[in-house]
Specification:
The protein has one domain: Rossmann fold, CATH 3.40.50.300. The protein has five helices and seven strands. The longest helix is centred in the middle third of the chain and has 17 residues. The protein starts with 5 loop residues before the first strand and ends with a helix. Bound molecules: guanosine-5'-diphosphate (GDP).
Length: about 200
Amino acid sequence: LFAGPVDFVKGVTAMANLPPADRLEVCFAGRSNVGKSSLINALTNRKNLARASNTPGRTQEINYFALGEEKYLVDLPGYGYAEAPKAVVEKWQRLLKQFLQGRQTLRRAFVLIDTRHGAKEVDEEIMKLLNKSAVTFQVVMTKADKVNAATRAANLAQVQETLKKHPAAYPEIVMTSSEEGLGIETLRAIIANMT
Ligand code: GDP
């Protein structure tokens, strides 16, 4: 569904180093260990494009990937990792704010939420920031294969309820499993259809 190859462009730690804002972008945000790397790898059909890692909070870079020549996929560092040094967390939060408030070509943020846990306080913090920054965001539930249908439905309902508080939220939630391929095609189509 992506028109061309997916390539790593660069990792960025300061606004000044962002690639030229010359194409539409979507970004992916989520708590550390939410399954973001696995999702990006599944979406792009690449085994190790985004490094799946069990070291939460390790990557503090904004990673840019080119989807053909038309779009950027932006991988934001995982948040909510309590053990990261305070100075690192603060630097990251500054960069995140600057990015969300200042990136004109950012079309949509995908906020990843673990289907096992539902929306947590840190997720709501990000939603508030997105709202404030007037960035439309869409929730993607991850690791759906890890829970039974009842838990899935309950936590989906919890997230839907949470979204009512955030006007910048896109109402449709995408349920995914990178493990089983659930929702991957849907998410690809959502991105592919953005113009
Ligand atoms: P990140 O820190 O958000 O990039 O998370 P990762 O992609 O590294 O995933 C964290 C852990 O969850 C890894 O052990 C993955 O194998 C596992 N994981 C990620 N996505 C899924 C999924 O859809 N289903 C299952 N069962 N496990 C997953």
